[in-house]
Design goal:
The complex is a heterodimer of chains A (281) and B (313). Chain A is mainly alpha-helical and 281 residues long. In chain A, 76% of the residues lie in helices and 0% in strands. The longest helix of chain B is centred in the N-terminal third of the chain and has 37 residues. The chains are: A mainly alpha (281), B mainly alpha (313).
């Protein structure tokens, strides 16, 4: 009896919290179907006249279709940074776990020591150094710093240490395989689940990145979505004589999160396994 | 889950202790070769670590010790910038604000995350699986877009709360409104972390409590919660680290009410504007370096003080 009452109460609580977490998404979905008048005039949480197609057409034609450029940039930065960071982390994580080389313990201790350095504190000096190297306002200013992922190295080191047996590597060496061959054909396949997790997390971190591209880029054709949408929002809010862009911004926000939510739903298992490892960091 | 939780315990001694495994004298040449190969493998990472972590850190420290003057150019100023930062009321206001924010927002969010984690751990229905997804989805949304959505929701002209008569963006309320955005975005993430810890607990412990007549609520609060204290400690740490660096949310909401969200609203926002609106790179570097040092040292002290209870030893 109390068991059942408790279950009803806990489901009620979950229901209330679910409404809280999903409310902004519902609002976004509804708002993306409205034109500017509807956005400001009609009931915020229900549909009025549906202008979704019109909004999307506006979104993709605004400033000669710059939104599509931003979308492409975001995808490009995410894929290149994600793949690059994963390769770098895989090589280093494997070496820390399985290869003996002078300075290994010192370098790994340095990594553990620096894992807590807050990234935001490094953006300004990185910008100034990049500007001395003449690389500010290029794609490299966004991509190169994103390739460094100390946590990914740590995660892969732990994974390789626990789940790639030395005997397997030793057997391949005895068969005459070189060190790189051992890594590629024996260790790498065994590391796959952890690699997918690292790839996923670095890609999403890059897709969501804002501070670094905000500081590094001034050419709007290099912007990722996050920086581009913020510029539109500034223009729309502060007036400035341009067209009121609010419905375009809402549609743009919706289009920007659809790929993430799709990836999130499809790859749930990897998200959760990554976060579990994150819990012990 | 259990094997993951025990991972650092095996990882750390392996770093500190002597390398294990066979090491016969006949292997010396092979080991020398492995040494070279090992460096080749970590080289890309080591280069990146130097270029984008150590070098910027050293450069920020150097910048913060200099001042640029019109007549002499860059001159060594030792701790003058830091002295200025300590005496700057705008820095102080920002620090007090993020501390206040962290003090209120962190327990609220961790509390919600813990409640949600206990609920999904206690229920096995289809709805609880749906709820787990719903709570976690905000984490997948870029902070910029999450903040934009809430900006529209808070607005008196586009939001659904306009009937309440509260101006969510007024100077007295906006800090709480920002806290809500952070809570919405990160509660589900922390819920998953805590839920994973709960799933790793041995079931026998609370099965026997249940046989002794303990209710579900008692088991959740008196048995499960203390047993995941290490995960709670870490979740709290990462949240506090994040709030000290508070930047994106106030920057995005700023155009909606620049009078309430000033350009020195948080220390990071202040450092950003000092550098990019006023070209005060040296002063900005001092503020960033100070903030970074506080976060860095603070998190190690926190981990050290709580290491008996946390997974990191």
């Amino acid at each position: 009896m109390t068991e059942k009452k408790g279950s009803i109460a806990s489901h009620l609580l979950m229901g209330v919290m679910a409404i809280y977490f999903l409310l902004p998404f519902w609002w976004l979905l509804v708002a993306a179907t409205k034109d500017n008048d509807g956005l400001f005039g009609s009931a915020p949480l229900w549909f009025s006249d549906v202008h979704l197609v019109e909004n999307l057409r506006l979104l993709f034609s605004q400033e000669n279709g710059i939104y599509l450029t931003w979308l492409r940039n975001s995808a490009f930065y995410a894929v290149v940074s994600g793949l690059g960071a994963t390769v770098v982390s895989a090589l280093a994580g494997y070496a820390f776990a399985k290869l003996r080389f002078p300075g290994r313990n010192a370098l790994f201790a340095l990594l553990l020591g620096l894992i807590m350095v807050p990234a935001t504190a490094l953006v300004l000096p990185t910008y100034l150094l990049m500007s001395q190297a003449g690389m500010v306002d290029t794609i490299w200013a966004v991509i190169l710093p994103s390739l460094l992922n100390p946590f990914g190295v740590y995660l892969l080191r732990v994974y390789v240490h626990d789940s790639v047996p030395d005997e397997m590597l030793e057997a391949a060496r005895i068969d005459g395989a070189g060190e790189f061959r051992v890594f590629r054909s024996v260790a790498l396949p065994a590391m796959r689940p952890a690699l997918v997790t690292v790839l996923l997390f670095t890609m999403v971190a890059s897709w969501n990145n804002f501070f670094l591209p905000l500081v590094m880029l001034s050419d709007s054709s290099l912007y990722p979505l996050t920086v581009g949408l913020r510029t539109w929002f500034m223009t729309a809010t502060l007036g400035g004589g341009g067209p009121a862009l609010f419905n375009v911004i809402v549609a743009g926000s919706l289009v920007a999160i659809v790929p993430l939510i799709a990836a999130f739903l499809l790859l749930q298992r990897h998200w959760r396994s990554g976060l579990t490892v994150g819990a012990v960091k | 889950m259990t094997e993951v939780r025990s991972a650092p315990a095996t990882a750390v001694p392996a770093v500190a202790g002597p390398p294990s495994g066979p090491a016969g004298g006949s292997r010396r040449r092979e080991r020398a070769k492995q040494g070279a190969v090992g460096w080749l493998f970590v080289l890309p990472f080591a280069v990146l670590l130097v270029a984008f972590l150590l070098l910027p850190m050293a450069y920020a420290l150097k910048l913060s010790l200099y001042r640029s003057t019109l007549i002499e150019g860059e001159v060594f100023a030792f701790l003058d910038n830091y002295k200025q930062a300590f005496e700057d009321p705008l820095v102080r206001q920002g620090v007090v604000r993020v501390l206040l924010f962290g003090l209120v927002q962190t327990p609220v969010m961790i509390g919600i995350a813990l409640l949600a984690a206990l609920l999904i751990d206690g229920a096995t229905s289809r709805f609880s699986r749906f709820f787990r997804l719903a709570a976690f989805v905000p984490y997948a949304v870029p902070v910029v877009i999450g903040t934009l959505m809430w900006g529209f929701l808070y607005s008196g002209s586009t939001g659904p709360f306009r009937g309440l008569g509260i101006d969510f963006l007024s100077s007295g309320v906006v800090l709480a409104s920002l806290g809500n955005i952070v809570t919405w975005q990160w509660a589900g993430y922390n819920m998953i972390v805590l839920y994973a810890a709960l799933q790793g607990l041995p079931k026998e412990v609370y099965e026997s409590a249940r046989l002794d007549g303990a209710t579900g609520t008692q088991i959740a609060l008196r048995i499960k919660t203390p047993m995941i204290s290490s995960a709670l400690v870490l979740a709290t740490l990462f949240t506090i680290m994040g709030t000290l660096q508070f930047f994106t949310e106030p920057l995005i909401l700023r155009p909606l009410n620049p009078g309430a969200i000033t350009e020195h609203y948080t220390p990071n926002l202040y450092a950003f504007h000092q550098a990019f609106s006023f070209q005060q790179y040296n002063y900005s570097a001092a503020i960033s370096f100070l903030l970074g040092a506080v976060v860095f040292v603070g998190s190690y002290i926190f981990l050290f003080a709580t290491r008996k209870r946390s997974a990191l030893r």
